[in-house]
Design goal:
heterodimer; A: about 270 residues; mainly alpha; two-stranded antiparallel sheet; B: about 120 residues; elongated
Chain lengths: ~270, ~120
Amino acid sequence: MDPLSLILIALAGVVVGILGALLGIGGGIFFVPFLVIVFHIPMHQAIAASIMTVIATSSAVASVNVGRGWSNIRLGMTLELSTTIGAIFGGVTANLVAASTLVKIFGFLALVVGAIMVRNTLSQNHTETLPEGADTGRLGGSYYDTAAGKEVRYRVKKPGAALAVSFLAGNISGLLGVGGGIIKVPAMNLWCGVPIKAAAATSNFMIGVTAVASAFIYFSAGHVQPSITAAAAIGVLAGSRAGLLIGDRIRSRWITRAFAALLLVIAVEMFLR
Amino acid sequence: MSLRMEKRKEEDERMQLLIGRALLAGVLLSTAVMLLGLILSAAGMTAPLPHGISIVDVFLMLDPRNGTSVLLLGIALLLLTPVLRVVLAVVSFVRERDWRFALVSLGVLVILLISMFFVKG
């Protein structure tokens, strides 16, 4: 690929990285269609490049979140048992399925993600905190919420449901090259009672490990195009850093709704291809 | 808070800090190597590599004068970063004598190794 295209891909990665941080999503849902529609990169290569950017951002963001104590390593590791198996199935399936079919499945996912994004802007997140000193169970945890000025303690309800949703999220991640957090975070919050900050940080912690499980499959199948992947990963990393700096200041539900509308356009475009 | 839980929290925080540093180091190193690979490629120092080589081959066939080879090294380092995270989690849980979660983390590591060596796309 020529240097100019690579620079444009890196710049697109920067935009996607900023967007991801602003919208609180990974960004793969925008990056894959961008590579396919604008740069005419084959679907499997686009998915492979996107999955590598997911690994890069997850690792970079997790290293920041760690200091805040939001991510729950025990819960994350337990759920990774099912996300990684799901991701392997997803990666194997993707390599058996024609690119044109994957594009259509991706279009459907764009619709679902858009709907979840709109839904998230409509309802308050759900946080139930246990009294101080209460047992948080094997999977539960606690962190200090600086905004509320108190310690938040939680137990994990319905771990079976969390494992099932994690399998599905891992499967979609491996099949389509996205992180899958958009599915896990609301489920962990609404069904399992994990506070949204802990759910998001734990999901992010898991996404890199999940993505690696399918990335090895794309790598061995020869879908990792080195220069495209490197340009994409570097761009998204830079963008997500920038997004973290400006993120909290301009986050708004209208920006989220605008991009949910963009996902609708992407979905239609991918269905019609 | 009970003494046991306080100790667990303290050790968890140490583990998180260690894992966080390892992740950051992995990301920075792989990014630097990928940048170098892109520069070498842009300078015309590049040659194609066999199709579908394995992660192990990337290290064995490393050629510092071939941009593609250097790019693949950066990508391989990026891929190995989350694997390192899981290895560190296993080690930390063993040190905490938290056998249940040491086993869970070991399970995740085994799944990743199976994907790395045995599952072909």
